Amino acid sequence: xxxxxxxxxxxxxxxxxxxxxxxxxxxxxxxxxxxxxxxxxxxxxxxxxxxxxxxxxxxxxxxxxxxxxxxxxxxxxxxxxxxxxxxxxxxxxxxxxxxxxxxxxxxxxx
Length: 110
Description:
The structure is a single chain. The chain has 110 residues and is mainly beta. It is built from 2 helices and 8 strands. The strands form 3 sheets. The chain has a 4-stranded antiparallel beta sheet. It has a two-stranded antiparallel sheet with strand order 2-3. Strands 4-7 form a two-stranded antiparallel sheet. A hairpin with a 5-residue loop joins β5 and β6. It starts with 7 loop residues before the first strand and ends with a strand.
C-alpha cells in the first residue's frame, strides 16, 4: 500500500502589503485555495515539516500572476510545490493589481 503524501498544512495570511501610492488595502479575499502537495523528495529525505512564506502578485481580476518565495525552512524543499499551488489560487476581483503574503506550514504525519 502506497503511503499518503498528503500533508497537514496551515495557511496563515500576512497583512496586506502597500498597494499603489502607499495606500493600505484590506487583505484580498481568497475565493479558491489549492493545497500544495507534500513533495515526495522531502518524504524520501525524511523531512517531515517545513514553513514557506510567499509573496503573491495578483492582477485586477484576482488571478495570481507571480509567486516569489520570501522565506523557506528548510530552503528549496517546498518551493516548487508552493509555487504550483499558489498559482492556482484565485482572489475576489478588486479592479487593480495588488500583492499579498501568505505563510504555509507543512507537516507530513504519515
